[in-house]
Amino acid sequence: MVQFLGNTFGKLALLTYVATLLPGIGNRLGIKNKILVLLKIYRREVGISMYLLALIHVTLEKLLIITSVKELLTLLPFEIMGTLAILICFFLFITSNTVSMVWLKLNWYRIHRLTYIGMFFIFLHVALVKLSIWTLLMGFVLMLQLISLIVIYRRTDSFTGGRPI
User: Any transmembrane segments, and where (predicted)?
Assistant: First the structure.
């Protein structure tokens, strides 16, 4: 039961993560849509929800079922990828507020670009757990992200679309 709940929270975390990526992809590809506009408005809140869902996922999948310290410290490849992803998401989570934006200025944008690295670790985590529809979903979104970055680079000669680095 605990693992079923952990798996469910992991899927919800993946869906909310995808929801945070879609507005940027749509913007770079020039796609206008009411849902993307709504997601863009609430992206920060959706991202915070994603991190909390992922934290519950980790707690249920690993922390509640360990029986020894050795088991906690022994990580399988998919767990290493998930750990790297959640570490990156931690920095996104703690800086997902207006105070951080004001205080960090351009560094806020740099920190939040870590999501491009995090998405690869999330994809690898999902793929190494089991090839499934979730792997296909994350792979599809990853490809859309790469295509959108290529499109914006060709259009503006910059991966940021002319925004600050």
Answer: 12-29, 41-60, 80-104, 111-128, 134-153
Number of residues written out for the chain: 165
Residue 161 lies in a domain: no
Q: Does residue 164 fall inside a structural domain?
A: no
State the residue range of the domain holding 42. Answer: 2-67+75-156
DSSP states of 96-165: -SHHHHHHHTHHHHHHHTTHHHHHHHHHHHHHHH--SHHHHHHHHHHHHHHHHHHHHHHHHSSTTTT---
Q: What pLDDT score does 62 carry? A: 82
Q: Tell me whether residue 165 is in a domain.
A: no
Does the pLDDT of residue 92 top 70, yes or no? yes
Q: Give the chain's domain count.
A: 1
pLDDT at 157 over 90: no
7 touches 53 (CB < 8 A): no
Task: Indicate the pLDDT class of residue 164, thresholds 50, 70 and 90.
Answer: low
